[in-house]
Amino acid sequence: MIDLARVDGPTRLLPGDVEFRELTRVDDLRLAQEMERRIWACEDIDVSPVLLLVALVKSGALMLGAFIDGRMRGFAFSVPGDRHGHRLHWSHMTGIDDDLRSSGLGTQLKLEQARRVAARGYTRIQWTYDPLQSLNAHLNLVKLGAVADEYAEHVYGDSSSDLHRGAPTDRFIATWHLSADGTPIRSPRLGGIVPGAGAPAGRVSTEAGWDVYHPAPTLPDADVVRVPVPARFSAMLQDAPDLATAWRLQTRAQFHALFASGYEAVAFERQGDRGDYLLARG
Predict the structure, then answer these.
(1) Cα–Cα distance, 186 to 278 (Å, whole number)
(2) How far is CA 194 from CA 190, 269, 278, in A?
(3) Per DSSP, what are the bridge partners of residue 233?
(4) Are 94 and 77 in contact (CB under 8 A)?
(5) What is the C-alpha separation between 123 and 180, in angstroms, rounded?
(6) CA distances (Å), 254 to each of 102, 204, 239, 266, in order?
(7) What are phi and psi of 243, to 5 degrees?
(8) CA-CA distance, 142 to 60, in Å (whole number)?
(9) How far apart are CA 238 and CA 128, in angstroms?
């Protein structure tokens, strides 16, 4: 049995600690429903219907559960599709229990998803994530080696989840390129980036304990541009919503402009709970 008590810091899971299973039966898919409620605190209207999940799995979707000591503690759900002429799996949801967020389970789960998707003949996975969440940015770009060059506004509309309520659900669309065996292929643009590189797109100050963004009047003309994200954005959404909205709209404009100019978000440098995106042009 794995001891998940936090005695000397966050639990770190080894690969052998986790059992991965593809979920196809109704009872197993209900476990994913339960996790949706537990992780995102959403109302039933926003929880995935089991009958729909059954139909999607039968038509090629992958519902992958991560089990520790017999209990499901994380899942990743992806569906096959075609986007901009590319055959791919769209990873709709990935979630793990809050007490395992720093355990390495998220990385293990995504890498297992990559292997299983590649075994089905796919070499590309895409998904969305909130670009202002620093932990997700670090996971997706640094640990997993995905890239982002698309910005979508208010993707999920108004949500019943306490994590999103009242704020635009803007998202990066991350792209994960895979080899035939599911190994992630990192962007060749990383080769020209050294630590500390990049012209800043603005500066950050601290006011009343919160990060405040002051974007530059014009974006720098440089091969690498740095765009910051704030610390504690989830808390900001709840406790300082006007400031969170300002961050959203200011960075939205910059990301749109940079992606339209041929930049790609290829790396993320963390400084504590905040960090900077590194966007490189080819």
Answers:
(1) 14
(2) 8, 11, 10
(3) none
(4) yes
(5) 7
(6) 30, 15, 25, 16
(7) -70, -40
(8) 29
(9) 21
Q: Could you tell me the two tokens for 91?
A: 């990873």
pLDDT digits (tens, 9 = 90+) for 246-272: 999 999 999 999 999 999 999 999 988
- How far is it, in rounded angstroms, from Cα 1 to Cα 12? 14
CA 216 to each of CA 134, 258, 276: distance values in angstroms, whole numbers, following the listed order = 21, 13, 15
- Letter for the amino acid at 26? V
Could you give all domains of the chain from N- to C-terminal order, each with its CATH number? 15-187 (3.40.630.30), 189-281 (no CATH)
Residue 192 Cα distances to 24, 140, 255, 259, 278, angstroms = 44, 20, 20, 18, 11
- Using DSSP's 3-state secondary structure scheme, residue 204 falls into strand
pLDDT band, residue 159 (cuts 50/70/90): low
Q: Whats the size of the chain, residue-wise?
A: 282
Q: For 50-100, what is each residue's pLDDT tens digit? A: 999 999 999 999 999 999 999 999 999 999 999 999 999 999 999 999 999
Residue with tokens 């009958």: 51
- Could you tell me if 255 and 117 are in contact, meaning their C-beta atoms sit under 8 angstroms apart? no
Segment 164-212, tens digit of pLDDT: 556 799 999 999 999 999 999 999 999 889 888 999 999 999 999 999 9
| Max CA pair span of the chain | 56
